[in-house]
Amino acid sequence: MSVATAPKRTAKRASAREGGSFLAALPWIGPALLLILAIVVFPAGYMIYNSTRKISQVGTDLKGVGLDNFAKVFADPALPRILLNTVVWVVVVVAFTVLISLALAQFLNKPFPGRTLIRMAVIVPWAASVVMTTTVFYYAADPNYGIFNKFLTDIGILDEGFGFTKNAVPAMAVAIVVAIFVSIPFTTYTILAGLQAIPNETLEAARMDGANRWGTYLFVILPQLRGALAVAVLINIINVFNNLPILKIITGAIPGYSADTLMTYIFKVLQFDRRLDISSALSVVNFAIVLVIVAIYVKTVKPMKEV
Amino acid sequence: MKKRNLRGVVVAGAAAAALLLTSCGFGGGNTGGNDDAGSPGAVTTLDMMVPSYSDGTKALWEKVIKDFEAANTDVKVNLEMQSWENIEGVLKTKIQGNKAPDIYNGGAFAEFAAEGLLAPATDIASEATVADFQPSFAENEKVDGTQYGLPLIASARALFYNKTLMEEAGVTEVPKTWDELHDAAKAISDKTKSDGYGMPLGNEEAQGESLIWFAGNGGNFGDATNIAVDTPANVEAAEFMQKMVKDGVTQKDPGATQRTPMLNTFIQGKLGFAYGLPQTVGQIKTENPKLEYGIAPVATKSGEPATLGVADRLMSFKNDGSKAGAVKKFMDYFFSADVYSEWVSTEGFLPTTKSGSEKMAGDETLKPFLDMLPNAVFYPTTNPAWNATDGAFKSLMGQIATGKSAPDVLKEIQAKADAAK
User: Fold this and answer.
1) Could B253 and A255 be called an inter-chain contact, meaning their C-beta atoms sit closer than 8 Å?
2) Lower CB count within 10 Å: N or C terminus of chain A?
3) CB distance A143–B112 less than 8 Å?
């Protein structure tokens, strides 16, 4: 920012001028600000407000209860397992997505016949609706008529169909596979864009210096992908953390809370327990966790820092 | 010049904000514009939200509404269909936004009544219509002595059995007791390629399946003042259900099994026994008429008759009270013998009105279910904590199939019900 580098004595005047220019800019940024207020700040505020109320099961606001709802949330015996599930879910999905996407992007960056077609194929899972993709996986894994189970029994790995989506651990695994599958297109394309921004001269210079392929990749290419990777990881973390459709479809029928993440638990509290107040409190916790993750990430990785 | 600009911005901004806020549904109040509903010639619009009982429900309601609107030009009805899975969530959102439907078809109603949101039956139907309901059903619609719901349908569960599979497994008698059902289902599981008994404990119908078994041991879910899930009779029944699962006589993963797809496997002839509804008969007729099956009373511990009865109702949210007259017109029209009996018989349910019963007395399909109705146990829908109990059954009961001890599961459900008081 130029203001930061300006001499001290002019800073005050500069900020006064800034105030004036803010008013002048208001007509242009006003609509965007209003939009942010209406669709981000207001609902978030409303959620926080709801989390401090007692709301009857039919939805009438009864009274304020302070932080009681949060006390209930943290005393919930199901919470530890849910948090553990959430962590596993986010870490595994994001890690695999990024690793696979790195390889895929490297491959798509090489010139080969039919590259355009392959690139388009990679984007398909992104173009399809997540609900649709997940439903296809869900039916494929059905123990009675799922094509995946049929295949496994036909080649003799299984004696009879296995309920991949009927028990907590295998169902989480299936959901993780689906989540990786639908996250890859965006991640791959972000990394691909990063790869194409690397000037050819750098790579040539590395080659001239006698670096081998791995050396070039680790010490020349990877550092230059920092920006692209940072964006990809951050957006994936938020996306995966807040993902509902995949888990709802794959693990939704499993009784109890052993296959729930924070997000699906909020949904269950709302749908089955009809506790709008408790689920608001859970949502606030959810929101806080995302904020903390993002803050830690921005602080340690400094994604905006130039290489 | 600059000043004018600024004012323009403020006005435009305020307008945009107002637009955004109201479209978000937080505006409050009905914006339907029925200020002059009372004046002659004005049209009152009724919002009606109903669940779908079958693929034909929507068309059935649309026909009723079309005929009603033709006869009453001053009333318009907006129909909104929702699945059973979603309807209560949608309703709650609407109540929060002060947009509760004028006519609502639902199961539980006591907590709405307890919070004073519902109009009493006498405000939304004429005396003749209210008096036409069978007394036992009308009684089931009362909270603190006031009737709120207009009973729409009744239904009972019965044991559907596959004759072909029974023969193949060498089972000759239709099971009447738990033990007989267990052994018959075991024979089918062992000797045929099909599953013996279908137990849907997924979140679609866990409460229904549970109450069928609890009722078979003299148990129930409690009454209007007390939710009693964790009782000795219920625990014993839940333990027997668990035994069925452990002995492998049910389909796989009963805890995650939904009723609809499970009944489809019965209809396809791949399941020995399952509890079904009157509609199941119609489904078999259209989807697999060749199925060799029979209908028998529910198998209970001692063989004494007992079953789960379900009654759903129409109710009306008061809102500002201006639409009661129009609602009354609609209800009186709908519950008239001809319209009502056609609706009920098309959906395959049992009628709740005296005039409707007379009209449908000769229906053969309904007979086995009508016979069971006197011994039916109903959900405690008049208890304000029933909604929460229902939700707890849906999300927790399936755990008995994943190995958690039955008494613990019932305790967990009871705790959720108690927390809702």
Assistant:
1) no
2) N
3) no
